[in-house]
Amino acid sequence: MGTVGRGGRDLIERWTPGDGVDRVLVVTAHPDDVDFGAAGTIAAFTNAGVEVHYCVVTDGEAGGDDRAMARREMAAVRREEQRAAAATVGVRGVTFLGYPDGRLMPTIELRRDLTRVIRRVRPQRVVTQSPERAWDRIFASHPDHLAAGEAATCAVYPDARNPFAHPELLDGEGLEPHVVGELWLMAAPLSVPVAASTSGEGMGDPTMVVVEIDLERKLAALSCHRSQVKDAAGLRARIAEWATRVAREAGLAEAVFAESFRRVQTS
Questions:
Q1: What pLDDT score was predicted for residue 9?
Q2: How many Cα atoms within 13 Å fall on the side-chain side of residue 159?
């Protein structure tokens, strides 16, 4: 990765292919979360030959505004929409955990189920939602997003690597511990206290990673979520404005679109 800027103690790096990561797991609360937050990045990963898997914690049955549609039917629709969106950006597979939409909590059971997926997929990088609320972008901090991010973070460290965490996974299912090297957080607060980067623990500066994206690939993935996207033109304008702002803040060239993540080294 190449450094493109530094703000205070925050390091901003630009992702480039060939960084040694060849398998990625993305964990989100709802269908469409990954496409709003990271579909452009996922397309960049798969274009570079990276194997990507999705784990969606709920089926999104509380989504949409059609009150006449049975919630079980909405869940089925949203699962198919997410599978179609994943195929658009070259994702290998999608796992749905089936937790209730709108009532997600970072329980020990959810941590166990995410640990199971991590041990099966064995990714070097996990991309998930930030467990911290972003007050400047509260729509990105849905309680389910925060809960999914917290549980995924706990599954990455310490659960997945600890043979004594959730012993039924090792003893009953034969799933060996696995160390995920880094965590990428979507919609993470942009500012990081200086103390976080000077703690002396040897983890390096807190880092924002910026990924240049193909906006059309991202929009193609989002367009699969027909039950949720009603104003395609308005969505295009909003996503383009956001992706342009991310690129400008990272100091990238004009006419470039980007997504950004908080990167956390875990080992």
A1: 42
A2: 25
- Letter for the amino acid at 51? E
Q: Can you spell out the DSSP letters for the chain?
A: -EEEEEETTEEEEE--S-SS--EEEEEESSTTHHHHHHHHHHHHHHHTT-EEEEEEEE--TT-SS-TTS-HHHHHHHHHHHHHHHHHHTT-SEEEEEEEPTT-----HHHHHHHHHHHHHH--SEEEEE-SS--GGGGGGG-HHHHHHHHHHHHHHTTGGG-TTSSHHHHHTT--------EEEEET--S---HHHHSSSSS--S-EEEEEEE-HHHHHHHHHT-TTT---HHHHHHHHHHHHHHHHHHTTPPTT-EEEEEEEEE--
Range(s) of the domain holding residue 219: 2-265
CATH code of the domain covering residue 54: 3.40.50.10320
The confidence score (pLDDT) of residue 202 equals: 44
pLDDT in tens, 87-101: 999 999 999 999 999
**pLDDT (tens digit per residue) in 4-14:** 544 444 588 99
Lowest mean pLDDT among 31-40, 150-159, 194-203: 194-203
- How many domains in the chain? 1
